[in-house]
Amino acid sequence: MAGGYIGKASADGKEYPGKLTFRVFMTCMVAAFGGLIFGYDLGISGGVTSMDPFLKKFFPDVYEKEMNMKPSDNQYCKFDSQILTLFTSSLYLAALVASLCSSYITRRWGRRLTMLCGGVLFLAGAGLNAFAYKVWMLILGRMLLGFGIGCANQSVPIYVSEVAPYKYRGALNVMFQLALTIGIFVANILNYFFAKMKNGKGWRYSLGFAAVPAVMIIIGTIFLPDSPSSLIWRGKDKKAKQELIKIRGTGDVDEEFKDLVEASESSKAVEHQWSSLLKREYRPHLVMAIALPFFQQLTGMNVITFYALVLFRTIGFGSNASLMSSMITGGFQALGSFISIFIVDRFGRP
């Protein structure tokens, strides 16, 4: 449990005073770089595994199958490699572990520190992958990327929700998803151009450029304030109120601050937080919290995003055509996220 409180309208239906200040906007922008990190890796990995120099160096058996494949053969078989599967899946296994562990860091030391840890881990993973000369270096780099993504994905949405004003919370939260889709789109563009490099080292640049969003979130997080909810949870009420005044752009924050303190005290009073989720009154929320992402995954959208190049190549597209098709898919994902920023608060989440 994160131990935080994202705010709400007051009990009588009146919204808390405050406005969308430049400080809040920039804070959410920097935090959203966590989505850029995840999106870039989603887009870059599929493109790299389709580059012949990369396959020839690290997965020669896959490269040989690809070169000797006949048109009548099953095109999926050429990518049948346990090591290649480990390379792609190790990131998500590491992200799963990191998501569970980072919740303690997020609660104990704040969202900001968790985001900073995620950026540092991602930077280390990007560097290791860019200079890899053995498969184990690729896999270890992918695991570091996964730990970084797990930290960022666990802390960033909470942080943005706690800092954003009630009226703009939906739109600012969508910026995380927008940054994710932009990361996918940028990765597809870079893959397209780096694949054309004559020296055969384009894959190194594709993997190495993951360091750019990592550096962005590290530098940005250093200057980010902690969220008021996190400060209250850690007993820093005075500092929390000062920060709330700054991010709301008004001194009239007593009502919201009072609710934040009460929510924090109520949360601390719960002895068994995880088991409380199984109580009847929380069961609908628990079911929806699990069902929504579960069925979103079952749509296969993430698989299409990650393996877009492989899918396009197996149905007969050439290398350049596959890269271009992935760019188009990534571009429309970013466009859809951009549109949702303007409609999520106006027309509601459902």
TrEMBL record:
Major localisation: membrane
Start and end residues of each Major facilitator superfamily (MFS) profile domain: 27-350
Membrane-crossing segments per the record: 20-40, 83-101, 113-133, 172-193, 205-224, 286-310, 322-344
Keyword Transmembrane: yes
Subcellular location: Membrane
PROSITE patterns named in the record: MFS, SUGAR_TRANSPORT_2
Keywords assigned: Membrane, Sugar transport, Symport, Transmembrane, Transmembrane helix, Transport
Membrane topology: Multi-pass membrane protein
Magnesium as UniProt keyword: no
Family as reported in the entry's similarity comment: Belongs to the major facilitator superfamily. Sugar transporter (TC 2.A.1.1) family.
PANTHER family in alphabetical order: MAJOR FACILITATOR SUPERFAMILY (MFS) PROFILE DOMAIN-CONTAINING PROTEIN, SOLUTE CARRIER FAMILY 2, FACILITATED GLUCOSE TRANSPORTER
Protein's name in the database: Major facilitator superfamily (MFS) profile domain-containing protein
